[in-house]
Amino acid sequence: MALLTDELRAWIGREVHYPAREELGRASIRYFALAMGDDNPLYVDDAYAQAAGYPSVIAPPTLVCETCQYAHRPPDEDGYIGHEWHLPVPDARMIRAGNDYEFMRPVLPTDRISVTWTLADIAERSSSRGGTQLFVSSVATYRDAAGAVVAINRETLVYQPLGAQ
Questions:
Q1: How confident is the model at residue 165 (pLDDT cuts 50, 70, 90)?
Q2: For the domain that residue 13 is a member of, what is the CATH number?
Q3: What pTM was computed for the model?
Q4: For the chain, what is the domain count?
């Protein structure tokens, strides 16, 4: 049985835009650095960041892609508030298979970051365990208030059937 249906193919090219509601903020930067165990003074010390050539503290690079600061919905049953496609793939488990990040410039506490997610592709491929699985490729483009791209996140999800095919 094919996993890649016409219904799923119709999802390719869909976009979802999440506008920024507020500035990223110093507290978000500091908390993220603490959570990551990263004590780089660029993230907490203005004088240090300015001496390094920045206008103020900067955010750890992946903060913009990982914090879901643009989210405008209540948490799901797993506590997640970020973007999800909710693809109609019955009887399958979804696995986050990887991310490829590209950063154009450091993000500042005063930045208002919006994101547009695009479902770039869905491909059905053979599984090493037999049968097939779906590979879903998405691209998240993060922009500042002026519309300049500050980061891109290319994400791969894999949907594996729960039972034998």
A1: very low
A2: 3.10.129.10
A3: 0.89
A4: 1
